[in-house]
Known about the structure:
four-stranded parallel beta sheet, elongated, six-stranded parallel beta sheet, alpha/beta, 14 strands, 11 helices, disordered N terminus
Amino acid sequence: MTLFKTLALSTAIAAAVFAGPAFSAERIALVVKSLGNGFFDAAAKGAEEAAKEIGDIEIIYTGPTSATAEGQIDIVNSLIAQKVDAIAISSNDPDALVPVLKKAMDRGINVLSWDSGVAQDGRMLHLNPSDTGLIGETIIKLAADYLPEGGDVAILSASSTATNQNAWIEAAKKALPEKFPNINLVAVVYGDDDSVKSTNEAKGLIASYPNLKAIIAPTTVGVVAAAQVVTDMGLIGKINVTGLALPSEFKQFIDNGSSKAVALWNPIDLGYSAVQLAHQLDQGKKAEPGATFTIGHVGEVTLDDTNSAAMAAPFTFNASNIEEFSKIY
């Protein structure tokens, strides 16, 4: 090859490299429990909002097709290979994900958990959507408010290893004797954030407990499944379905009377806040007890002795306001 041709080829390669697609200076992966879940889709909108506000950030929104730790481990390994800057994860298991997330941190990737936490060794900080005790009390109160004489209730949760669900249920159990002595929790079952399994578990509760007055589902998948079962079985007015729900997905069940009220924080704000926190870690801010992090228009949070913080109190949706909020998320 002549010198002229060699120089020409080198120039062409260089031009192709510089003319190729520009990469964002910062890549933040938002890893969710499973794809196709309206709660996490809303959180992804908030993540994109934060990225746009901060500028020069690429959001990688990803998760397994079913809510398993194994699926999330595979995804985190892929993100490590891609050398992302930060991983913000809502975990399916607090302990199983620790080794792969420690691997990510060892490779210089900043890791935080949000919504459903990871054990402390597997992340730099954790963002709870709200105070755990307050959520536990709220989900019981949502049922108790419509049972003046008390009665049997059951909980339909997500997976048995879901960090946030288990913490809320334990908080709910603690609140029962003192604040809700007439409420009798007869069972806790798990639908694995799968619509079909949640439907079957709701039917099983109704068959097993003939005096059941309420099904409490602290999961947006389970609460919809339970309300649909109550509707289909003609039990509206006999069993009240409540828990944590997206207004846009749940409005029909408030409207038809299968539910009196549900609650939730704003998942858009949650995804937004997770990205704000990840960006500050990427910028070198240290996560340590007592440290205060700003989270954009949402406000600020201060880390406790486990490097965890809570975002906001849950908000109750009922017939008076769900129409308004169903247009937002």
